Amino acid sequence: MSVLFSRQCEYALQAVTYLALKKEGEMTSIKEVTRKLGIPYHFLAKTLQSLTRKGLLVSLKGPAGGFALSMPAKDITLFHIVEAIDGVDFTNQCVLGFPDCSGKNPCAVHEKWASVRDEIYAMLVNKNVSQIARDMRKPEYRSSSE
Amino acid sequence: MSVLFSRQCEYALQAVTYLALKKEGEMTSIKEVTRKLGIPYHFLAKTLQSLTRKGLLVSLKGPAGGFALSMPAKDITLFHIVEAIDGVDFTNQCVLGFPDCSGKNPCAVHEKWASVRDEIYAMLVNKNVSQIARDMRKPEYRSSSE
DNA sequence: TTAATTTTGGACAAAAGAGTCTGATTAACG
DNA sequence: CGTTAATCAGACTCTTTTGTCCAAAATTAA
Known about the structure:
homodimer, 146 residues, mainly alpha, two-stranded antiparallel ribbon, DNA-binding
């Protein structure tokens, strides 16, 4: 199992941040993204199509076609991507799986998890893909296998 | 998908903390646990058997049989249970799914996630099921549907 | 000893997640 | 116009996870 997000969501996060490295409006093909990131072609295709339908990306068919961010990179956060692929249930679900866990009826780690969850939320919201692209251009940020 | 742990692991966490409510050495049947917690009988059976093989529980067949903690509740932490069912990969995996993410080669949220992960780890290690049982006996801690 | 009640073990089924394949559509370029 | 290169759509397969079923073994109590 993946840690916190589904595989598909991880791929989406990786791919969108990769697109953010390109200059605004430049189209990037699925082929390029999957090669650089080492993820399955057709699976990512579906994922990017889904992000396009949700309005986070734009796409263009034909030669010189591909995908690009639909808005300035500074307006897209990691949270937007997670929201589009996995949904945001993690923001209100009990980490121990109790269906009726709440402030009135807390599980053993309710408050602690609430604070952890808030940190995760902040981690996703406070990072827009423009900042990430800036970070990734630094030499010490090279997570893809190029 | 569940939040952080597999369904089976959530069930295990719920069940073991339920067993911790009983007095030391008292046997509790699968039937009772699944009824109180509203989780599938045969599925939990397998889970408890697995915890028994791993040494966290003891079991006894026959009428008046069932399961009990194999050691004092204060010696069992949530982490032990997670370790036995899901494993501890979450302690060293990249949250964005980059296979080669590391301190030398960090992803965009590497440090932030490291601190969140440490908090999760502490949350699991610092809670033993004896404390949890004590908490659950208070009136405001009633997470099962009894 | 017999009946009842429980865990144990293994096989099986269903559902969800991940990944693949093929053909259609679209657009750039010669 | 025809070729080529890309997305799009949908069906399909494979794997993992979740859940179910049944018979055997063990233990208690009558």
